[in-house]
# Entry
Amino acid sequence: MDAPLRIVIAKPGLDGHDRGAKVVARILRDSGHEVIYTGLRRTPEQIVRICTDEDAQVLGLSSLSGAHGYLFPRVCELLRELGLTDIIVFGGGIIPEDDRDEMYSSGIRAIFGPGSTSEQMKDFLNEIIRRSTEGKSDGVGSDSDWRWGSR
Amino acid sequence: MGSAQTQIGAGEAGDRMPTLESLCSQAAAGERLALAKLLTAVERGEDLAELIPVREHSVDAWKVLGVTGAPGVGKSCLVDRLVKAWVDAGGKVAILAIDPSSPVSGGALLGDRMRMSSVDEGQDVYLRSIATRNLPGGLPARIDGMLDALVSAGFSHIIVETVGAGQSEVRIIAVADRILLVEGPARGDVIQAEKAGVMELADLIAVNKSDLEGAEKAAEEIRMSMQLSEVDDGAPVILCSAHTGDGISELVEALDNLPNARGAASARARERLLAAWTESLLLHPGWGDALKSVESGEVTVREVIRDLLGHED
# Structure
């Protein structure tokens, strides 16, 4: 791993559960990436602004409050509106199986629920880097229907 | 090159990647994404010298304030207060917040944002988190170029927040016009030791956490050690609390009216030279191989230095 990705890990909405987000941030740091943690209770607008200012390449959204159904698609929509179409977005937390298709179709490329391993997250990042070198775009503005694990 | 960033989305997006020139003009017009991409380009090693003016270090009015101090004294929270005060007064404020890279993985956890709620809203404030990428002195080599970019984008106040720095880490003076040293209570006789080093170069010393016991005593001890200086009167010491807001307006006023930079010109020149030297070493084509051969024990550090210096001729 010779080149760090810049990854924003964000906690959208009124949700104080950040253990998972912090563990993920740590895993990504230990994989050699530069991770910007937003802190708790950020609005979708603030998260998109942070991604803009930090020139992030990847965004991870963590939600355990049940509000992912609004917050995740809203963040993706704002990213597209502001032209941050290349950012690759993944999600984590408590995202029920029944909600996942909707998340994926809003632009989320991977979802890591309870029990996910650090190996899986590293595999996801390696996969998006590999696909990018092949010229495939998995950004939130791309109409690709690729998702991690769907190979 | 080790400090290059992996390109994601370089496929279709790569074709419409804007030129550095257009990024510069868009950044000057206030486009945040263009500014962010410009800083990324500088961090990756692009040289903007032909596109934007190179900033001159100012001993009169300052633009770049270095904020340094030991880990945990409250630098980020204090910076948050300063940002708010300057934005409220009509300023345009940028912050480069530096955190350490892991010497093992090369990754970094950049967490300064979470303590600075004032930076996530409004057009007049911009924060960029930067990893040291393991440069000595805790300052990324490219920070000078990033500061040039921010000045040309119209920022009136630029704050460089260092990693929690020890007494001898004075590289900040290579890039900052003024130095604010943040101290806290209960740092004990560390204060004595710090008389040599960054305390001599600080233009202002803020003793934060004045709401806690021992802050007043710490401020008094620093004032007393300053009085022993035979060179000048020493930096002013201001007691404040980022938590309660006490003393913040005094701190802002003192910063707004700082006289000429106090730090010795020789120290500034020395650190500038060392920073530039480190940067050219890291950009040397033989650097990557040199690192590997030292790691494997094939050659000694002395031999590597001799070879690298030989290349320069």
Remarks:
- The helical segments of chain A are 19-30, 44-53, 68-81, 97-106, 118-133.
- The radius of gyration of chain A is 14 Å.
- The mean pLDDT of chain A is 93.
